[in-house]
Write a structure and sequence with these properties.
The chain has 371 residues and is mainly beta. The chain has a single domain, classed as Methylamine Dehydrogenase, Chain H (7 Propeller). The protein is built from four helices and 28 strands. A four-stranded antiparallel β-sheet has the order 1-28-27-26, with no helix packed on it. A four-stranded antiparallel β-sheet has the order 2-3-4-5, with no helix packed on it. The longest helix is centred in the first third of the chain and has 15 residues.
Amino acid sequence: MKTLKLLTFTLIVLFISSCSNNDQDNNMEAPTNETPDNGGSNVTIEKVTVPSELTLESIDFFENQKGFIASSKAYPTPESEILRSIDGGKTWIKVYDNNSFYINKIHVKNTNDIYAVTNNGIIITSNNGGDTWTLNETFKNSGYYMTDIYFTNDDTAFIVGQKGSLSKGFILKTENNGDNWIDLEENSSNSNPNYSEILENNILNSIIHHAPNDLLIFGGGTWSQGKISIRNNNFWDITNSIVPTKIVDLAIKDGLLIAGGNNGQTNSTSERGGLCSYNTSSMTWQSIDYNATNKIHAVEMKENTIVIAGRNKSDNLTDGEFLSYSNNEGQNWTRIPHEYVTAAWNDIYAISETEFLVAGYNGLLVKLTIN
């Protein structure tokens, strides 16, 4: 573990450790909200029509108007589609399809530049707003299972995921807008971090960037051991979580970080989710009790409102798929009752503090309005 001399980073490391050492009973007690309650009556859900029957994997927008969805399926043969909206998500058209891979994540850098990453190491790019697409096959079929991509500035971006079949992550980096990518473990010119140590038993799943402190935050770990990795000025700190859930998604607002995940199991007695937060105002980390132990697959935050989405328990396949929100930064939670059963939510995008788009199984896209 590298030691930072910068005060900001030292404080954050201490707070992450606080998160890891909190009483895990907050997330590990028996489910307390496994069926929809009446508390979600102030939430309306509207189904949005999309031209795809594939599972909606990832959704992202530029300035809440021009948006893209990546939809995919893995079996029996891979398929992928990319959908585009230019009216804030009200209507969608298909702008790309491929039957040789599936897309895990799409990232809208600006109105023209859109990037997506795949299961077999192909990077998909459009530089004209989604009219045409090109494939970067540098890492094709080389064991790079890509899960997220994120630009920290106009030229610099990172791609993360799992490398090979082992419990090991990877970090790719570009400094020229995606024209070239390097594997930091193999080609890093920085002598400070030991990437082999950072990536061991750390399947990276998500990326987020806190611009005010220039903190690059990765969520990952293994299904039985979550990890949060923070880079500041090329120094890294990796913190284990005692809650046995991999970190699969991150959200940040004004320095408040929300990290959600699950343990990858499908068994009503052992499957679990986990949620953690850091508040820069109180300068504390804490585990969040979200009134359930359902697996979490997506986290989104806008102002004081947080929406989490995931899976129902394996013995609860008749209620609407797990969906919950908090309008006070995670202090209190309300599960949202709805009619969409086994929807398998995968991603959320916040249009505003009261409007969220939630993407899921078999082309299901819904708009939540929290009154």
